[in-house]
Fold this sequence. Notes:
Layout: H1 3-7, H2 21-32, E1 39-43, H3 50-63, E2 76-79, H4 89-100, E3 109-113, H5 121-132, E4 138-144, H6 152-155, E5 159-162, H7 168-179, H8 183-192, H9 197-204, H10 208-223, H11 227-232, H12 236-250, H13 258-273, H14 278-286
Parallel strand pairs: 1-4, 1-5, 2-3, 3-4
Helix pairs in contact: 4-5, 7-8, 8-9, 10-12, 13-14
Amino acid sequence: MSTSARSSIKGKTSAGFLGYDWLVKLFVGLANRRELSHGYIFFGEHSVGKFTFASRLADYLEFGSFEPSRTPRSESMVINPGAGESIGIDEVRDIKYFLSQQPAASNYRTVIIDDAEALTDQAQNALLKISEEPPPHGLVILIVSNPDSLTSTLQSRFQKVYFQRLSTSEIEQYLHSSYGVDAKTAKDVAGRSFGLMGRALALALGEAGLKSAHKSALEAIRGKDSRALREALDEPQRLEAIVREMIAELYKDPERNVLGLRELLRRSTLNASLNTNKRLQLETVLWTI
Length: 289
């Protein structure tokens, strides 16, 4: 979210966590009793709130509140690889050193690894060794879309927590009550958010990139024009946004578009997991919609 977008938000952030209040109660209780596990895998779709929840938990452990803190944390470490980058053995060595230090402002030292799918095999093996003899004050949270992207042995050392999509009504109400979005816009955005709060906020706050992607996707779908996709092939984030818009548009009439949806989801999975020809995969879907 851009700085200008953040500054335009009205209202306040809820002390709970939209759609996951039961998880807040669970983790707060575990933290208060000092019964947190040494490691968790937070998994679910992109933009559903996994990283934000982990960050809020780190705030709670250090400052005693699930509200986002304006004070920089000193007891947490965040690993966030850039697009196309991997997380290697050097980063895991830094994690090991960080966790070896005694916390001063919290009962825990917390490491959050976003996009943990980027961990190399060597890095996963090193992280496994840390998890086999974890420091009593150490907490490691891996953020992934699919836990099967991690080795089975590493998975076995972490507790898994699934983050489901939110309901349209939850998102609509939250946008209206907490961010001051007018009722009509909140309803429209919630309907196009696909159950993903991060996406809903981006749309509601008017980020130009997503708005442009939405327009391009509709033109591509309705006009069977592959130009928008061709122009986005070298921009992974824009391409991903366009594909999501295509899926959201098709879901408005799922019975009519069931074949197109099935094929788009299948080929999107191929693009994400294999070194496929993205142009061929996506244009094939586009011309069969």
